[in-house]
Design goal:
This protein has 91 residues and is mostly helical. It is built from three helices and no strands.
């Protein structure tokens, strides 16, 4: 029993030291195309906001499964859902 406790304590200490060393030795390196990615994310956010506004103007409710209330989630299956997809989900 003492041996198991010692092994567990040693394992915890080694793991803690490894995590501490990893956190101390790491450094943040910005992506070369950070500004491009940031601009793309901002454009996408504006587009999603416009879709939400448009759906609200049409009186379309936000789907209950849209947890973040984005307006981007709709019904699982509609009249344009492909037949193979209905078969795949056994509907």
């Amino acid at each position: 029993m003492k041996c198991k406790r010692f092994a567990l304590l040693l394992s915890v200490l080694v793991l803690s030291a490894s995590v501490a060393l990893t956190l101390r030795s790491g450094k943040v390196v910005p992506a070369e195309d950070y500004n491009v990615k940031l601009e793309a994310a901002q454009i996408m956010q504006r587009c999603m906001d416009q879709v939400k506004v448009y759906k609200q103007e049409l009186g379309l409710p936000i789907h209950e499964e849209d947890w973040f209330r984005t307006g981007m989630i709709g019904d699982r299956f509609t009249g344009i859902t492909p037949i193979w997809l209905l078969w795949w989900f056994n509907c």
